[in-house]
Write a structure and sequence with these properties.
elongated, mainly alpha, two-stranded antiparallel sheet
């Protein structure tokens, strides 16, 4: 069993930052403890992959890494077994369950970073024609293997 760190001051500071009542000051506090670009990508990818069981929408299946060089925290997905199961539309969930996700998205700066990441994903990563081509390619490879098991499997 992995030993838990004795000092979780970094996480306590992040929670305190997320609970800062004034939105401008909250953003300053969050940005001082969290890599905000990485976190906005993390949120966008959870929504894009319909990862309803992750941190942002269910407070589950995540890890937090403290980078000793920058002093900032990074959220890392973990246990992504509930992805692509149901669509989340529009590209903003009905609510953000994770405290940091909710606090981040309540700020105008956080929403702007999130929307920028959504735009970048649409234009640079999720290229429909390429995805369809790749699925067709993989289906062509897999179909004969399933056919060996019978028509129903194919």
């Amino acid at each position: 069993m992995a030993k838990k760190p004795d000092n979780q001051e970094d996480l306590k500071q992040l929670v305190a930052a997320a609970r800062t009542p004034g939105l401008p000051e909250r953003w300053v506090q969050l940005a001082g403890r969290l890599d905000t670009n990485s976190f906005s990508r993390y949120l966008a990818m959870q929504v894009f992959t319909c990862n309803w069981d992750g941190y942002a929408m269910f407070k589950n299946n995540y890890r937090v890494y403290h980078d000793p060089e920058s002093g900032r925290l990074y959220f890392i997905p973990h246990g992504m077994d509930q992805t692509f199961g149901r669509t989340l539309s529009p590209l903003l969930p009905r609510r953000w369950e994770g405290l940091v996700a909710r606090a981040f998205m309540e700020t105008s700066e956080g929403r702007a970073l999130y929307q920028r990441q959504i735009g970048l994903l649409f234009t640079n990563v999720y290229q429909t024609a390429e995805q369809v081509r790749r699925v067709d390619e993989l289906a062509g490879t897999l179909r004969p293997l399933f056919a060996e098991q019978g028509a129903r499997a194919a």
